[in-house]
Amino acid sequence: MINNDNVDLMLVSILQSRFKSITEEMGLTLLRTTRSPILNEARDFVTGLYDSKGRMLEQTEYIPILAFALQPVCQYIIKYFGDDIFPGDVIIHNDVFTGGNQNADVAVFKPIFAENQLVAWAACKGHQADIGGAVAGGYNPEAREVWQEALRIPPVKIYERGKLRRDVWQFIFANIRFSIVEDDIRAHIGGCNVGERAIMQLVDKYGAKNLQAHIEHLFMLTEQKMRDEIKNIPNGIYHGQSFMYNDGVNEKSKHKINLVITVKDDSILFDYNGTDPQTPGFANAPYSSSVSAIMLCLLMVIDPDIPHNHGLMRPIDINIPEGCFLNAKFPAATTFGNTIAGPHSDAILKAFARALPERVTAGWNRALCVATSGSFPENDRKWADILFLSLKGGSGATEGVDGYDHIGLINCAGGLLAQDYEMFELHNPLFLLKHEYARDSAGPGKYRGGLGVVTEFVIQGKDTTCVTFGDGVDIGAFGLLGGLDGTLNRVELKYPDGEKYIAKTKEILKDIPTGTVFYQHAGGGGGYGKPSERDNKKVLREVKQELISPEIAKEIYRVNLDSLTSKRY
Amino acid sequence: MAYKIGTDVGGTFTDFLLADDDGNFEVYKTLTTPEDPSIGVLNGLKEMADAKKLPVVDFIRLVDIIVHGTTVTTNAALTGNGAKTGLLTTAGFRDTLQMRRGIREQQYNNKYEAPVPLVPRELRCPVKERVSVKGKRVKKLDRDSLLECLRMFKDEQIEALAVCFLHAYNNSINENEAKKIIQEYLPDVYLTLSSDLLPQIRFYDRLSTTTLNSYVGPILKNYIMQLMHRLNENEFRGILLIMQSNGGVTSPGNAIKNAVSTMLSGPSAGPVAGMAYAETHNYRDCITIDMGGTSFDVALVKDRKPLVITNGKINRYLTAVPMVDIHTIGAGGGSIGWLDEMGLLRIGPKSAGANPGPSCYGLGGTEPTCTDANLILGYINKDYFLGGKMALDYNHAYKVIEEKLAKPLRTSAAEASAGMFQIINANMADGIREVSVKKGYDPREFPLVVAGGAGPIHAGMIALELEIPTILIPRESSIFCATGMLLSDLRHDYVRSYNSLLTNKSLEPMEILFNKMKNEGEQQLLTEGIFHENIRHYFSTDMRYVGQYHEINVGISEEDLKNGRLKKISSRFHQTHDRLYGYSLKDENASMEIVNLRVSSLGITSKPGLQQRAFRAATGRNSVKSERKVYLPESKSFELIEVWDGDRLEDGIVINGPAIVEQVNTTIFVPAQYKLIPDRYSNFLMQLIT
After folding, report:
1. Which among A30, A385, A455, B601 is least buried, having the fewest CB atoms inside 10 angstroms?
2. Is B620 on the interface with A (CB under 8 A)?
3. DSSP 8-class letter at B403
4. Residue A19: closest CA among chain B residues belongs to which residue?
5. Cβ-Cβ contacts under 8 Å, A395 against chain B
6. Kindly report the CA angle at A166 between A161 and A167, in degrees rounded to 5?
7. Do B204 and B100 form a contact (C-beta atoms < 8 A)?
8. Is B585 close to A183, i.e. CB distance below 8 A?
9. What percentage of chain B exceeds 70 in pLDDT?
């Protein structure tokens, strides 16, 4: 099927699904071969393919927040190395001031050559267990500049023309605490090799020039589809505002995100003028991280099946003034940046709420993470865990559908798995007492927010440290159109001597004694629409299921509970 | 004369393969009777009796073995019509089943809801008890909290009950105590203990599987009782066997106990059949594809064993019992072509099904399907569909494709059909990559065994895309799974968690656990009437490098275990890891960790063999039927090519592509790059011309 431009639409269609399938294959390789649980259990990585100009062909992301941060890096690398790129090169990068989204999110790029020319790039990027800096794991609430957070890796070749640069490799890993990271970077290279092999087969079959022509057409069609999606959003100027709390330096601080979305026909502008300046601590976002937050919220309000390639980005304009805390200037500390997606998404959802009330959700529970580490009592073996199971709260409700229970932070949009209890106890000296839905945690509404969870465990190990980084203890996930807020987050330590301590959202707690009981409440999502309009049967059923207390049912939902006295319903 | 029957209940048809002592195979098909599928089975038996000119009872008395594949458990899980089920679980962990570890499969879709849990919260009852990760009982089972749950279950009139306590794989004392009390209070309830069904680590996996077993157990039980009743009424004296998801068969009693193991009863027989055909050409491996009306199933067989997974999902519910790794995509003869919002042509997963079916059937279909495209392109002969039993409406199909696809694409109906053919082939090639490339296997090293009515039209082009050199097309490719059932062995899978580093010291405890499972398998097979000399046991371990989270399953020989050949055991792991993921840590001397031990016990049954037919001397070109215009993908044009009669091909004949080979039930398209040769088993071999 040939049209005027000599483009075979069948081939465009085949390429699009083939690119997707290749990035999935690369992702599967990473999932299976990496050793750090944050990669293979939490799936905190992305794989992508880029054309010779560094434009995204497709990506597979399990976790959206690092998804849209590879294209700018790829383009930076192309500019940086110029002609100095050869078959067999492998390039590594993490620097947040040259396109990276987080210091610990390390990307590996491999140029793909065929017919004696550069035809494409394969890339894998994942969250590493350690990246140097002052504290293990990289989350350092006390950091004030980038050098206290991480080893900066502007692009550097670790392989040149197929040969390992042993000196460079050893230099990098001499600055990283865990040898597991070395294995994981090897797994990233393996993922790129899988992508390289598959692209070379495509070139072999269709020819480089022909392939590029069809890629341009794919970009064009995707851009057109994106413009059609934007046309579905009513023209207008939409304002959204939200706050991040506690920059880790001043507990009482409050930081405004000011967003104006302008939709005009088939173009859209996200403008962050008026957003507060960068903070002195680590609660700042690099530009790429903020862009990913925008993209993930945008994909939630349009047809999400649109191909994820360069064409998708073309109609979108973004202005985040340099020096505000969503686009921090060198040499700011920024490790908290991805977590700012919580407050940031609130501003975006609120802005879209006026434009697309049926598509947007109420607020999602903001993550409060507790990176916990220590050693086993019997053999001093070290362990570390980010306690995903306890931080996953509920999502915001939307028109027609309740929020998703225990889904977790919006950055991950349901892609982050809670640990299995038995594996959790096998890997960590922690004894679980409870992990259940938290009653009355969901923000009430015609559609209720997703349920939050309560987790309790006994700390049985030695030298236990908890590093908290998060938000959501000052305000709950916001309700929308008459819906109410979800519950607040809370982390509490009950020491063996009976003392209790309520953890702050960004602090390091050291030497937690054996026998301490850890308690976390991850809040529910925001409700949508007036609670009094909720279907009474649903309320009664959840009272019976002990997910809603009789008091809330009576006072907030205005439901008569007399019918509950009979055993059956 | 004695008979063996394989019968596969599908969505539309119930397929039968009747084998007699002389090795003759006959195919029968009846309409499936969804309200009680055993009626359809009996209808088929009656049809066979008629064909043999025998009264039904006299015919059935001659049947030795019926192997049966059923979809009742799958349907119950898919439609939510399982038994009313209760769940007993450790206090503090009441919601694990519903949480599903908090995953939302569609990241950006905020309207996507979690599936309704198999057991609602009010029927998930927490019991005070606790076993530690090391297997120590740290809290006794609290009788009062248990009795309170049981009273509630009684009031609620549950039909089935699942019990899953934390770390019960390691110490089942509390589950066993609960069982005693349950049997006293609720003797008629279908009961599953997690430590009986699947004693392996990972709470959610075990919980979900145990619950699913109870949820579908009573349904399967009622169905099998009904089927046995109907057979007994007709004086059936033979053995009834039920096909399981693991590619083996079992006795009705065992199937009822492990109901969740029949979730893929049916499709799982496909790879078994494929292997039998591949073996006639001395292959030990193959990839099987089965293209039906709505779906395309792919599976890979390595060393005569179908690949098996332990993380299968049915309707988003996890099941961790071993099942044959069958990858299904929505591509079949009825798959509908449509244009997405970018104006790109897509096919499936929506299908016109059997009713109304493709437009060319003339039964009211108005959507452009894959079959319609194949008709326009000349691959299907409109006057010889089902041997001429069904006339096809070419003009209607043409009009539908023209209106719905060609005009919006500004092209001709023929070009649009060619596009459909190309895209559905690409989709199916991707489906094959899922089970091969993505698992570390190179598809070029496997013969492709092709089944399903539409499969042989597409197989050549799919194989070309993947550079697969050899394609095998069985003559009876339309009832692939019923064939596989007759060729399956009895199979039981056992698992025990055993967490330890792989060292010399761990071998002895491993051996003890392996032998326990082996004995269990031996006993089970003996009670199913298998003689000792026909029993085989296969040991394997789920292992990983220390620090990894995902295990891989690696075979381990009894010999190596007994003789403490640690090196051999570990090098096998390194090799498998390297194949799957492209690297191993052999040189780094990384330590390995064992998570689970598994035993598969096989009872080898006597099977009807595939028979060679008499030699047919080549006499020339007798079997060329005609010529017709067919669309050729290389030249993108219609050309006149030869049509051969598949039922009359003679030995020694080589048909170079492009060509069409027609039989009553299937049509083969031989692309220009391939040649077709009939083999002595009445099957067809297609080979890449080098």
Report:
1. A385
2. no
3. I
4. B430
5. 110
6. 115
7. yes
8. yes
9. 99
- Inform me whether the pLDDT recorded for A1 exceeds 70: no
Output the CA torsion B276→B279→B285→B290 (10° steps): -40
Whether B2 is covered by a domain: the verdict is: no
Is residue B500 within 8 A of residue B544, CB to CB? The reply is no
- Judge: B341–A225 Cβ closer than 8 Å, yes or no: yes
> So what's the ipTM on this one?
0.93
| Mean pLDDT on B176-194 | 97
Contacts across the A-B interface (CB distance below 8 Å): 187
d(CA B388, CA B575): 53
CA distance linking residue A470 with residue A246, whole number of Å: 9
Q: What is the CATH number of the domain that holds B525?
A: 3.30.1490
Residue numbers in B near A437 (CB within 8 A): 95, 99
The full 3-state SS of A519-539, as one line of letters, equals EEEECCCCCECCHHHCCHHHH
The Cα of A402 is separated from the nearest Cα of chain B by a number of Å equal to: 8
pLDDT tens figures, B379-412: 998 887 777 777 899 999 999 999 999 999 889 9
Q: Who among B108, B342, B416 is closest to A304 (CB)?
A: B108
Domain boundary among B172, B192, B213: B213
A230, A284, A203, A247: which is closest to A15 by C-alpha?
A203
The mean pLDDT value of chain A amounts to 93
CA distance B178 to chain A (A): 21
Cβ distance of A413 and B108 shorter than 8 Å: yes
At residue B546 the predicted structure's pLDDT band, cuts being 50, 70 and 90, is confident
Question: Nearest-CA distance from A147 to chain B in Å?
Answer: 29
Q: Residue B101 is nearest to which of A418, A433, A547, comparing CB atoms?
A: A418
Residue B78's pLDDT is 86
Q: Is A184 helix (H, G, I), strand (E, B) or coil?
A: helix
With 60 as the cut, is the pLDDT of residue A382 above it?
yes
- Which residues on A lie below 8 Å from B113 (Cβ)? 401-402, 404
Q: Report if residue B498 sits inside a domain.
A: yes
How many CB atoms are located within 10 Å of the residue A474 CB? 15
Tell me the C-alpha distance between B454 and B470, whole Å. Answer: 18
Q: Domain span at residue B514?
A: 490-603
Q: Identify the pLDDT of residue A216.
A: 96
Residue-range domains of chain A with CATH: 9-225 (3.30.450), 361-534 (no CATH)
> Mean pLDDT, to the nearest integer, of B466-473?
95
Nearest CA in chain B to A395: B110
pLDDT at B619: 67
Q: Taking CB atoms and an 8 Å cutoff, what residues of chain B touch A425? A: 132-133, 167
Q: B93 vs A435: CB contact, 8 Å cut-off?
A: yes
Q: How do residues A191-234 score in pLDDT, each as one tens digit?
A: 999 999 999 999 998 999 999 999 999 999 999 999 999 999 99
Q: Does B391 touch chain A (CB under 8 A)?
A: no
- Cα separation, B462 vs B443, in Å, equals 11
Backbone φ/ψ region at B247: left (φ over 0), alpha (ψ -120 to 50), beta:
left
DSSP, collapsed to helix, strand or coil, labels residue A234 as coil
Interface contact A423-B549, CB threshold 8 A? yes
Segment B194-204 mean pLDDT: 95
Q: Is B330 inside any structural domain?
A: no
Residue A99 C-alpha, separation from nearest chain B C-alpha, in angstroms:
24
* Residue A134: Cβ within 10 Å count: 12
Q: CB of A113 within 8 A of CB of A207?
A: no
Average of per-residue pLDDT across A293-321: 94
Where residue A67 falls among pLDDT bands split at 50, 70, 90?
confident
Where does a domain end: B194, B213, B232?
Answer: B213
Establish if B310 belongs to a structural domain: no
Q: Is B119 on the interface with A (CB under 8 A)?
A: no
pTM for the predicted model, two decimal places: 0.91
